[in-house]
Amino acid sequence: MNLIQNSGDILNIIIALSVMLLTFFVCWVLFYVAMSLYNVFKITKEAREGLRKAHEVLDFLKKRLKSTLSYVYLLEEIGQKMIELIGNYKGKMKKTSDNEDEKNKKKK
Hints:
Elements: H1 7-107
């Protein structure tokens, strides 16, 4: 009835306990490795979402900038035409006033 009869039995019990402890620590390490990999997966997923949102914002800004630049170009063209028209109008007004001055001088 005695379980421990010689030193071989003590060795077998110690080896069994060591194997159980080693198994426990290997399972514990595997659990933490799995949790770390899961956290890396979550971080990678969040980073992808952030990059996707940043890409969408940049695309939106790019589209807005293109449309704004086309409006700026259009406004620039309109401004140049208005300056030309004002210049032509002032030139005509100057010619008209010069002609009137000459007519007034001839009358006197």
